[in-house]
């Protein structure tokens, strides 16, 4: 490992655009990690960075040993041609070895390695050792929960999932529409439908059965990237007023968020065992999307989702992962639909403040390049007419500039201190496990 330490990359030139090489597992296959990285890519490009992305997999390309080897050759060839870079962003822990080599070929000073949740537990021992030993590699993750899980390999700045500006505008537009309350309340849960077991669908339906017995009819919609497996259809068929929506388009999903009384995410948290993969919510961006559309939320009892909403203000959290604990939360929230609607409006206000694109751009550039985004052109100021007294300014004093956010925290929000704690269900690039 000493050879890695002898290379001295050149100091960055502050007058040129940041140059970034992005290595990812996939492009065009969908999933929360891909969406997260696509939003990061869009943000870097919008901020003036020169970026080249290299994907291992794409539609029609399977994860075979031969395709992995071809990716390594292609990534290193791209790194040689790329020239001097400011950073090589390693989009998954499995790509740490090729990322370390690309850092040397590009003479980059910065090698952030992105982590999301269960990949922390399943990281290979050799990759963990290389991450600890290489002075240019360092972890970056999506929530304070996952940052804590990474504490044995280093201090990980937090770069939460972002919402693309167009998708954010669509969701906020839905939240501004005032709709009358329908006679039957609606609950919504959004996740990749193949992951229904780890996302707690059975526990949610068990809790809802008790709620229906006490409060009357409640409609439940389970939506996400399909197709839905037969086991989920079988489970849903045993419960009234429950439907599955497979792969809704953006417009339909935005309406589902906005017309629901309550959004619920019940992800289970457990380490991998024989016959059962690891499960956990690194962040839960669907919680943020629901709030932007004006919907109150219930988050998982464990995991990193506490960063994605304000517990007690824009949503609530069960005390544990049991159906009884979830029932207690749902009972209190659904019993007063007018209060629930007010919570939804507060959720939209908070989410709007927490997802401002300029704040996110600062976080992305700080965490992944160590450099600021390209400054935007200042507006032209009006010229003061001749003869006007100097005491009569032609425009009001501008508000003080918003302080730059640290990459180790989520943007602050009204009424809440810095949060203490991609998963996503859709393959679109609008927002990121």
TrEMBL record:
Biased segments, Low complexity type: 383-395, 421-433
Pfam family for this entry, one: Glyco_trans_1_4
InterPro entries given in the database record: Glycosyltransferase_grp1
Chain segments carrying region Disordered: 371-433
Compositionally biased spans, kind Pro residues: 411-420
SUPFAM superfamilies: UDP-Glycosyltransferase/glycogen phosphorylase
Entry protein name: Glycosyltransferase family 4 protein
Native source organism of the sequence: Frankia umida
Lineage: Bacteria, Bacillati, Actinomycetota, Actinomycetes, Frankiales
